[in-house]
Write the C-alpha cells for this entry.
Amino acid sequence: MKTVTKEAMTQAAEPLEGELGHINRLARRELTAEEVYTFAVRLCDNQTDRDEEYFDRAALEKLAGLFVGKTGIFDHSWSAKDQTARLYRTEVVEEPGVVTQAGEPGCYLKGYAYMLRTAENEALIREIEGGIKKEVSVSCAVSRCVCSICGNDINDRALCSHVKGRIYEGKRCMVKLEDPTDAYEWSFVAVPAQRSAGVVKAYGTGKTLRQMLAGMDRSGPWEAELRQLEKEAAAGRKYLEGLRQETVRLGLLAEEGMPGQVLRSIADKLEGEELEALRACYEKRLEKTMALPTQLSYGGGQTGPAGDDGAFSI
C-alpha cells in the first residue's frame, strides 16, 4: 500500500440552498448560514504529475466518498489544534476538451469545505478570499501502483523492473494509482509542486520520513543515522548509474550493430547484480575478440647471438 499527497487549489464558494443539510450532518448542532463560511477545493485530478503518477476516473470516484468528512489542517500537521475546516461534500467534475497523457478524458475531484465564522478564523477567511491561501495538499492511501509498461505493481520488483519516467520501446513508463483505501486529511500548504493541481508524494503514513521525524529531538541518534542512510543511498544510485553506462559502453563494443538505445533500455531494466554479470560477460567476450597478438616471442627459432637478438624484434 502506498500513501500519496496531492496538491490542489481552493475556489471561492458561497453557501447554497441545501448545503446546510450536508454540513449539519457533520455538526453536533444545527448551524445557520450566518455561522459558516464555505469554499470549494480542487482536491486532485487524473492528470499525470511530475512523478509520472496519476489517478484514473475510478480512483477519483472512490476518493470522492472517502474524503467526505475529512478535516483540513496546515502543512500536514496531524494535530487537533491545527484543524481549520472540514469537507462536507465532494463530486467528480468533467473537464470538456481535456485529454490526459494516459489518453483519458480529463476530470478532477472537487470538494466543498466549511469552517466556522469565529474570531480565530477571520484572518484565514480573509486570506482565502484574497487568494493568499489557495493551494492545498491531500493525503490518501492506494493499494496498487500499476506500471503502464507491464501492468504489474511497480513496487513489486520481482514482477516489474521498469522505472517511472523512462522510455521503453517508445513508451514512457507511468504509474496508475489504483483502488484507494483511505483518505487521511487535506492541508493548506505554501508551495504547489504539480503543473496544474500540484502534486507532492509521501510514503508510509502520508508524510516523508523527515516530516515524521521533524518534531523529534534533532540531537537524537536517528538524525545522524538518517544522514548516513541518505549518503549511502546517493552513493548507491551514483554507482548504479555508472554501472549502467559502463555496461552499455562495453555492449556497444561487443555487440556489433546493436543500437545504443536498445542496450540502454536493457540496462535500465536490470539491477546491480544483473548489471555486474552482464558487464563481466561483455568483458570476457571483448578479451577474446579484441586481444592483441604478443609482440615478444620466446618459443623455438634460432639460437645463439643472432637468435637471441631476433627474439626481441618488434
The radius of gyration is 30 Å. Residues 192-207, 310-314 have pLDDT under 50 and may be disordered.
